[in-house]
């Protein structure tokens, strides 16, 4: 029984690709793609059904209505606060302008009295507001400096001055606000600065509508920018997924191609290096032959040959002598340790004989001199 309404909702949204597009349009803040909806059809149906009960931000219809009422109430209170705040700021600016003007030019006494009265009234009103506890503050809280609003109200200017100030205030405030509006107009459209006052006043009456129009245009551009951003994110995700697939396909093709040609490539590299090595060896041999030809001439070769023959003959004689000495040494070693002591004694005696012969020779040479 419950499947009937859901299917009717889904069919009302569309089928296939159109359903996916409408679901994505109904939930722009969700990070989804058409591929996700295709792989999860039941989830797609759930979102299609849910789109009839919530808006693009995810709020339900009753909650959206309550939110709009709260926003309207907030806007109304904000307008009321802005009206009071702008009036207060305007009066403060008028007082500041008067103080600056008073230091540069002579100001009439009645104008001085007007601005002093306005300043005192604002100061007293501000103090009364600070001293007057609201409903959210404990009534038993001690007052500032022990003062109450009635005591501060006694500091108000005389009633005559206040009444005179109230009569002149709308006119002076209108002048000040008109001056600010003209400054705003000159800032918004600098080319209108040299226009006449009447033309400026006419254009000033249309400035609010024009600013409101541009504000709506800016909000429309922001909304378009947000939509384009969401669309760009989806296209980027789609592009990246397709790019990853292409890269994977390219990697597989490269790997297959590399495996096929790697053997031939290695064999060709091996043949190349073998040929290059052989060439280097032949070059080394040729260089060695050239060095030998430059170093050894015919005369040098014959001389070296004679030297070699002489050295070989001397080597043979030394080897024969070595063999004879080794035989004698072997015969001596047969006699044992007793002969070793006799040999040492013999060596000692020979050394003494040589020393005495040397001394005798030196002595004979000395006597001859």
Automatic annotation (TrEMBL):
GO terms for cellular component: HAUS complex. InterPro entries: HAUS4 (IPR029327), HAUS4_met (IPR026214). GO terms for molecular function: microtubule minus-end binding. It holds the Pfam family HAUS4. GO terms for biological process: centrosome cycle; spindle assembly. This is HAUS augmin-like complex, subunit 4. It comes from Anabas testudineus (Climbing perch).
């Amino acid at each position: 029984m419950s499947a009937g309404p859901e299917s009717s909702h889904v069919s009302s949204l569309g089928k296939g690709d159109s359903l996916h597009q409408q679901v994505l349009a109904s939930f722009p803040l969700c990070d989804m793609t058409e591929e996700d909806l295709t792989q999860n059809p039941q989830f797609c149906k759930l979102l299609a059904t849910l789109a009839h009960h919530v808006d693009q931000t995810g709020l339900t219809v009753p909650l959206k209505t309550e939110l709009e009422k709260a926003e309207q109430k907030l806007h109304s209170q904000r307008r009321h606060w802005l009206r009071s705040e702008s009036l207060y700021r305007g009066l403060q600016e008028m007082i500041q302008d008067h103080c600056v003007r008073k230091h540069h030019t002579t100001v009439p006494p009645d104008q001085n009295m007007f601005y002093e009265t306005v300043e005192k009234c604002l100061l007293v009103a501000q103090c009364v507001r600070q001293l007057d506890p609201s409903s959210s503050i404990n009534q038993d809280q001690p007052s500032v400096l022990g003062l109450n609003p009635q005591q501060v109200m006694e500091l108000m200017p005389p009633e005559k001055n206040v009444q005179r100030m109230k009569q002149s205030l709308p006119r002076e405030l209108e002048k000040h606000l008109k001056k600010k509006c003209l400054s705003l107009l000159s800032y918004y459209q600098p080319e209108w600065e040299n226009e006449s006052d009447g033309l400026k006043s006419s254009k000033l009456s249309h400035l609010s509508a024009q600013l409101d129009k541009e504000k709506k245009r800016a909000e429309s551009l922001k909304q378009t920018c947000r939509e384009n951003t969401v669309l760009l994110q989806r296209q980027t995700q789609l592009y990246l997924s397709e790019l990853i697939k292409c890269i994977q396909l390219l990697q597989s093709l490269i790997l297959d191609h590399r495996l096929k040609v790697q053997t031939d490539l290695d064999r060709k590299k091996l043949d190349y290096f073998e040929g290059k090595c052989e060439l280097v060896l032949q070059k080394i041999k040729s260089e060695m032959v050239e060095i030998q030809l430059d170093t050894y001439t015919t005369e040098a070769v014959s001389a070296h040959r004679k030297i070699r023959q002489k050295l070989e003959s001397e080597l043979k004689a030394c080897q024969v002598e070595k063999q004879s000495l080794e035989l004698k040494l072997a015969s001596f070693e047969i006699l044992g340790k007793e002969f070793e002591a006799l040999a040492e004694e013999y060596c000692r005696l020979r050394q003494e004989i040589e020393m005495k012969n040397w001394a005798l020779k030196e002595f004979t040479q000395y006597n001859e001199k």
